[in-house]
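Name: CxC2-like cysteine cluster KDZ transposase-associated domain-containing protein
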Amino acid sequence: PRIRNRPIYPRLPNDRKTDRATVTDGGGNIGCSKYYQLYGRKGLTGGLMVAWCTHSICVGFHCIPRGEGRNDVFSSLFCYWPTAPDDVVYDFSCALALYCMLREARFFRLTRFLIDAFHSEGHTRCSKACFIRQYREFEAHLRGFNSSAGESGNAGLAKIRKPLSYMAQRHAVIFCHVFLAIWNRERRKKLAQTA
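Structure predicted for CxC2-like cysteine cluster KDZ transposase-associated domain-containing protein:
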């Protein structure tokens, strides 16, 4: 259930607008544009944003009207999580960290934003402090951390992409909920068998 509403931040220009343009640091210097160029090139719109645990089990999802952006991730974490997670692994964490800290620094004060091992190769302008692989040598709990769990889960969602495109939103949400409930049950059964 929703815990809090997403505030509007009137002192932040363009707050809540879809992230489609290249990100700048406020002084006109171009930051990481990898993620946004991907959406611009493919013309992607809408879809699902799913939060996955490190075992590729869905912990929540929501429908997004346009291409996924930082606001979708920020709003999901801030509105539905009682406390911010210790680690957020996301393919565009280099910009998500700044976005979250500008809006709710107190809520995210203990959160570390990391780019998964798979996506870090394309982030040539980003600080290595964003890369999960930089921490694995020194933090034992991150060595066994499956940073590609989200990619595995999203690959599973490809199975329902076609039928979803023909459904009304209400039916699509119900269909996704049922699909992800079955997905989670199957993942839990496999985890129980390996334990």
